[in-house]
User: What shape does this take?
Amino acid sequence: MWEWFRRLWPARSVPLQGAPVRRRLKSYLACTGYRYSYYYEGYRRCHRKGLQGVEYVFSIYFRHNELVPVPVFLPDDVVISWERDHSRELNATERYALVKMSLFHAFDHEEPAQLRKGIAINREQAEQLLEILGID
Assistant: This one.
């Protein structure tokens, strides 16, 4: 019923938290040979497609020096499921490591244009990437 109202006045996005004092430009050479340069901008709690979670935002340079924000969404249910299966909590550092590995996985397997839509982490991907990181 209120959908038309939301389109007229979209919700303001929540400000980012945890941004570094000085942004550091980092780079990643994807297995495709494409070199990505990016900044970490911070994170925020959000809703996406009916799911609660945390969105980590990276600004990524694409062709022609175009800086584009790319969100990586870590749903709460993915974290809760992993924590239940492993009988322990994922700390903030481990969650960030999972997000960054998901970003690198997308760099390796997605076309640059696809990244503009953002990245959502699912349970299977979380399990695989945390295992690669040696987080158990």
